[in-house]
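Shipment paperwork, digital attachment
Item: protein structure file
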Amino acid sequence: MSKPKATKKPDTKSAVDAIELLKADHRRVENLFADFEAAEVDSRDAIAQSICQELTIHAQIEEEILYPEAKVVLEEDDEDLVNEAQIEHASAKDLIAQIESMTTDDEMFNATVKVLSEYIKHHVKEEEEELFPMLEESDLDLEEMGGELAARREELLAEMAEADPDAEDEDEDEDEEDDEDDLEEDDDAEDDEELEEDEEEEEEKPAKKRAARTDTGRM
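Attachment content:
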């Protein structure tokens, strides 16, 4: 299954609220799932890979930064929300691994993406309706955490780009193909010009012969 190009890196120069950043991730993935449903079969492979990439990065920054901090500020009874979220991540990762090993030709491809979509909908609902409001009411510095999340997201995107040079190679191949096409077009244009010149010369020959005979007759 082909890999997508790394997505655009977020701007970390300005302050960003951690909850808003994570919600933006949720909306982006929701849009990708919608795109997948509406897409033609030959476009679904790339969209599915984008979904997997987004979810992999999102899960990792939550597990590395958000969840440990959440456990510090939440009451003991509420820590189960974080534990449940981590279990949901594990299930999603299993589905992501399956999708990454598939192509659109696989019989279970569409169904697996669909099941992943349902898992993510449930996960997002619990986070946005239960966990996030608790964190917004806590003493967490969400802007500082937002900067950490955004910076880590950039790092992971860079790591994925380095680990997958195929995307860059594909760009280079496309450029080479474009250059070859341009050369072929130039060659075709030159051939056409030469053909036109030859035809003009052939057309001019009878006229020149007639003119030569006329001149001879006058002499």
